[in-house]
Structure formats: structure tokens, C-alpha cells
Write a structure and sequence with these properties.
- The longest helix is centred in the N-terminal third of the chain and has 27 residues.
- It is built from 5 helices and 6 strands; from the N terminus they run H-E-E-H-E-H-H-E-H-E-E.
- A 6-stranded mixed beta sheet has the order 2-6-1-5-3-4.
- By secondary structure, the protein is of the alpha/beta class.
- The protein folds into 2 domains: about 30 residues; about 120 residues, Periplasmic binding protein-like II (D-Maltodextrin-Binding Protein, domain 2), CATH 3.40.190.10.
- It is globular and about 65 Å long.
Length: about 150
């Protein structure tokens, strides 16, 4: 009887922790997508090209329209996830690159927005714009890019 009770408690704990971890994983692994102004030409970019864009080295699209980069604040969790998982750099490395461009006078920092709504609105209304957000925040005002 004592062992049956322990088995049931262990089974119950496993179920509870299993449900908690599944809900955490599904929220944590929600897809971040790259968005652009609707008329931006390329629909697919390589990770290297994307890294060049967000490090402000690539300044124009193939049709010579200036690229306008939009980012969330450095301490935003989605920004950190984006830089680590998609660009394969740490957010502080990206910030150092931007600061070097600004302080040397050879470039400018990206346009910082405070939240998803500003990101979506800014990218949708700015020709040549590119940004990122979670898939659930999308609407049809922007184009989603494929990343290879």
C-alpha cells in the first residue's frame, strides 16, 4: 500500500512537471521571423547576408534602395534570442560593432524601437526597412523573409 502511494505521487509529479516544461518549451521556442517593407525584392536571404545587414555593413538592397534596420532594445529578450539564434552573435558584440561605426563616423546605428507594435509599424511604413519579431505579432502589412 505504501509503495502504491509513492508510485502515484511520483507519477503525479512527473505529469505536473511534464506539463510545465511543455508549456515553457512551446513559449520559449516560438518562432522569430525576419520582416521587411512589403516592396523589398529579395524574399530569401542567407544568414551571412542577414548578419551583414544587421551589422550595418550591407547598406543597400540589390535594387539600390537603402536598407533601414530596425531593432528592439539591447536588453529585450527577443533581441537577445534573435542575435544568438539567427545571427549567431551575442547582442553585446553587435552593439560594439554599431558603436564603432557611430564613434568613428563611418556609419550609423540601427533604428531602435521599444516594442513589437513600433517594430511592425516602422518596418511597414519605411521603404527598404528590415526587422524581426515573433510570428504571432505578424499582420499583412509586412513581408516575411526566408532565411537559409
Amino acid at each position: 500500500m505504501f509503495f502504491k502511494c509513492i508510485r502515484y505521487k511520483i507519477l503525479l509529479l512527473c505529469l505536473v512537471f511534464g506539463m510545465l516544461s511543455n508549456s515553457y518549451v512551446s513559449k520559449a521556442s516560438e518562432t522569430i521571423v525576419i520582416i521587411t517593407y512589403p516592396e523589398v525584392e529579395p524574399q530569401t536571404l542567407s544568414k551571412n547576408t542577414l548578419r551583414s545587414i544587421f551589422s550595418m555593413r550591407l547598406k543597400t538592397w540589390p535594387d539600390n534602395i537603402p536598407i533601414r534596420v530596425f531593432v528592439l532594445p539591447d536588453d529585450h529578450p527577443i533581441h537577445s534570442t534573435f542575435t544568438k539564434e539567427i545571427l549567431n552573435v551575442f547582442s553585446y558584440q553587435l552593439r560594439a560593432t554599431w558603436d564603432r561605426l557611430v564613434f568613428s563616423g563611418t556609419g550609423q546605428a540601427p533604428i531602435k524601437v521599444n516594442n513589437y507594435e513600433e517594430m511592425l509599424t516602422g518596418v511597414a511604413k519605411t521603404p527598404g526597412a528590415i526587422g524581426y519579431l515573433k510570428e504571432r505579432h505578424l499582420n499583412n502589412s509586412v513581408r516575411v523573409l526566408n532565411v537559409e
